[in-house]
Amino acid sequence: MSAFEPLQSRLDYAFRDASLLELALTHPSVAHDPPGTRPHNQRLEFLGDAVLSLILTRELFDKFPGFGEGPLTKARAQLVNRRALAAQARQLGLGEHLVLSRGEEVHGGRSRASALADAFEALIGALFLDGGYEAARLFILRRFGDVFGELTELPSLDNPKGELQELLQAESVESPQYTLTSVTGPDHDREFECAVSHHGVELGRGRGKSKKEAESRAAFGALRSLLPKEKPPPPA
Q1: Active-site residue among 45, 49, 104, 163?
Q2: Residues 96 and 208 in one domain
Q3: Most buried residue among 81, 88, 156, 222 by CB atoms closer than 10 A?
Q4: Residues ≥6 apart with Cβ < 8 Å to 2
Q5: Which domain range does residue 57 map to?
Q6: Catalytic member of 45, 59, 121, 193
Q7: 49 in catalytic set
Q8: Can you state the angle between helices 69-80 and 42-63, rounded to 10 degrees?
Q9: Is the confidence at residue 84, as pLDDT, over 70?
Q10: Tally of domains within the chain
């Protein structure tokens, strides 16, 4: 029996080319092991990310015909953040099948959220290459079916600070930091400028007639930079 048979049973899909499945599970750390030429899953991850986004976007588009691009973008971001994808990988038991370097193994690579999320996306890329669009679509809808069933309404972007915090904390426990960068104008007509940063990297700036409004607009700017494919609606 193939070492991947139990996994393929959980996937409810049998690969015609098992080498694609093995490649999807091969962590980039192996590139540093002698002789240093072993292929790994980064290219498949790149492909799988695009396939996953396309299929979920189409399903959201069909399920919620009355919603605009902002709520649809936010819903998609919630479905495909690192935490959600790592959870999918854990449910499938991908960690036990990962091909890791010795160093990555020692440092807990099998349970690392980033490695699991990347492997899940790479798996989708492998499914797409092996079975085509329909095979990938059926797999994704099986995996996300429960989430879609619970999704009866979409979140909005009318609270940019809250949305930004939720988006960033899917990747890190650190909250975004807001800094007042300038206050201009006379006392009766002040204009405030704030910047928002995360892990020391500035993500956006905004101006407003109050510090709260400036922070909200800074968060909105950050969301636009983090979700470049879709323009969220302007904050209230």
Answers
A1: 49
A2: no
A3: 222
A4: 8, 18
A5: 5-150
A6: 121
A7: yes
A8: 140
A9: yes
A10: 2
